[in-house]
Hints:
five-stranded mixed sheet, about 30% strand
Amino acid sequence: MEILAVTDIHGNARIVRKLAELIAKEKPDALLIAGDITHFSSAETARKVLEPLLNAGVPILAVHGNCDGRDVPELLTELGINAHNRRAEVRGTGIVGIGGSNITPFHTIWELTEDEIRGILDRNYREGDVILSHVPPHGTVADRVHLGHHVGSGALREFIEKRQPPLVVCGHIHEGRGIDRVGETMVVNPGPLFRKHYAVIDFDEKRGKAENVELNKL
């Protein structure tokens, strides 16, 4: 299964239209969106941003980010693509979503305690599932800010160490674009789509393993 993964759109509709053109050409098996569809804006904005992707004919799963408006998760549910705090399947592969971020110093719209993040995982995860999370796990290239500090979720990191999901797709930290491993788990932060970044992940459904990841730019 070829997964196209994006994150941190921050309302850039022009870039989304370019991505939709790429999807129409490449025809991936699934599109995963790891949050911050808008930049502190509403469901109305999110709908306009997502429209080209919804018309691309590819299965989509998404979570909201900490900068999405309060009504954005409801829109994602209405559109049938919301993965937050639930388990969905694409081509037989389970995907568990975590929207929002861990607690930040900035008091953004959607922030979760580590206990809340842990609860989402404990309730929904089944062995071999992929995790789609706006917030990255702590202590990886994906959660390191410019000054070198790691600001990701400790609960997500602990869960990965214990359960070893095959793949975690995340975002949130724009400068954390990269690929890392925690044991057997591959962690991918595609980088912000508003800066033209995306990732292509070859995922073997039979083996339950991410075989290859490419970090690309539109």
